[in-house]
Amino acid sequence: ELKVEQNPLFLSMQEGKNYTIYCNYSTTSDRLYWYRQDPGKSLESLFVLLSNGAVKQEGRLMASLDTKARLSTLHITAAVHDLSATYFCAVAINQFYFGTGTSLTVIP
Amino acid sequence: GAVVSQHPSRVICKSGTSVKIECRSLDFQATTMFWYRQFPKQSLMLMATSNEGSKATYEQGVEKDKFLINHASLTLSTLTVTSAHPEDSSFYICSAPRAGRSMNTEAFFGQGTRLTVV
What we know:
The structure holds two protein chains of two kinds.
Chain A (H helix, E strand, L loop, with lengths): L3 E4 L2 E5 L4 E7 L6 E6 L5 E7 L5 E4 L2 E6 L4 E6 L8 E9 L1 E4 L3 E6 L1
Parallel strand pairs in A: 2-11
Antiparallel strand pairs in A: 1-3, 3-8, 4-5, 4-9, 6-7, 7-8, 9-10, 9-11
Chain B lengths: L3 E4 L2 E4 L5 E7 L6 E7 L5 E8 L5 E2 L8 E7 L2 E6 L8 E10 L5 E5 L3 E5 L1
Parallel strand pairs in B: 2-11
Antiparallel strand pairs in B: 1-3, 3-8, 4-5, 4-9, 5-6, 7-8, 9-10, 9-11
């Protein structure tokens, strides 16, 4: 059974600080996705990573993929309150397998 | 703009009644759609895969007679919760994958449906 684990599950960080969310998965895949979910809302696509070594950046968020280590990271730079949300990674193999989610709270 | 539209966004129904949720791909054809259920503060749980022109594939533990899925066309899949009970109250999300360039397949998600059974 494919497992997708995120670390940490809960993250409270101060504005202006940096932090990294980790996504580990248990089988080979070269497609890794990151999504954001606000309370009561559906998922918003953030990044699609398609190859080993892929790195993508959008604003204060940067995602990377290491397929050999079966690891993806989502790095937050100089956090702001608007980034408070739950972040999910997902691995695609015939279907999408979602990670456990990381609930991020950015405090002033 | 949204490429997958899900309706309704919220519904309250009485126990014992049935509720239909629609999921439409707006500007592409989706031979496959996925239906997820999400409990508060948890991840998405795949319920079933909807296949256009054939029967849906249900995940283990999901009652196919209770959660009826119909994929009537290349742009529409419906999930009907039959004889709803309070424990069926949840957030239901549909998803449709769209193949792009360079084999880049991305999943687009509907807005979700908050079902409350009273």
